[in-house]
Design brief:
Radius of gyration: 25 Å
Number of strands: 3
Number of helices: 1
Oligomer: single chain
Length: about 140
Amino acid sequence: MRRRSGFTLIELMVVLLILGLLAALVAPRVLNRLGQSKQKIAKTQIEMLSAALDQFKLDVGRYPTTEEGLKALIENPGVDGWNGPYLRKKKIPKDPWGRPYIYKCPGEHGEYDLYSLGADGKEGGTGENADITSWE
């Protein structure tokens, strides 16, 4: 008699069940880390944009107005003393969720407000949906 080698259907189902359980336990932790990473990227980008805004103020004597916006960091809005562009890539980055950063000058929390609305795109929120701001 010849013996057949291979896996039985039950053995395959047990392996798939174990893999499914592992994926169910690991996936939420990995996705949570992804959300935290995006928040850290947003904080870093806000700090970079804030440094560029400070350089603009040193050269021009004021921060860009809300109307001039962050675009004033890469193109002269027609003011004396502008010595830009103030960003290396000569491009204004979007937040990690693909939306533009919100800039207001004068701001409610300081000379200017610069922030991202987080993953949900709405004001407020907690966790990954929390706003990332320049004043906190």
